[in-house]
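User: Design a sequence. Structure:
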């Protein structure tokens, strides 16, 4: 089966969770995707910093979109996040995910979450390629 690369902006437009968090598509291409979010009061935890789940969700959104841009429906089967620095309300966070290896059934991606030049977190994810076409899910 052949797969047609798909427009990541169109995929993101159908993602209700990204809309809820204010996560948006910036750019993408073969094996990579960049997403960002501007932190508002809804992203802040009880300690006054950005909730770790927001940072994870930003990286995971870039990962998922980079995987599925190939047109082959891919689902995460393993992820890991390392938090390095915190973030505060008003910060603009960016996650850039890129494919670092792949086989016929799986692919591994890395995403760095940054605020300007500062790396706040690193994420790695392994995706399983299902063999289904993304087009089937975009009615």
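Assistant: Done.
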């Amino acid at each position: 089966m052949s797969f047609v690369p798909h427009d990541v902006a169109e995929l993101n437009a159908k993602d209700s969770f990204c809309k809820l968090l204010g996560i948006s598509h910036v750019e993408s291409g073969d094996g990579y995707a960049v997403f960002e979010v501007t932190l508002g009061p809804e992203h802040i935890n009880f300690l006054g910093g950005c909730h770790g789940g927001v940072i994870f969700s930003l990286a995971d959104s870039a990962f998922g979109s980079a995987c599925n841009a190939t047109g082959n429906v891919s689902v995460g089967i393993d992820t890991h996040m390392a938090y390095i620095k915190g973030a505060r309300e008003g910060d603009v966070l960016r996650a850039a995910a890129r494919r670092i290896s792949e086989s016929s059934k799986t692919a591994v991606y890395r995403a760095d979450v940054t605020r300007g030049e500062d790396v706040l977190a690193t994420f790695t994810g392994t995706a399983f390629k299902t063999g289904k076409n993304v087009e089937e899910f975009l009615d």
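Strands lie at 24-29, 32-38, 72-83, 92-102, 106-115, 118-133. The longest helix spans residues 52-68.
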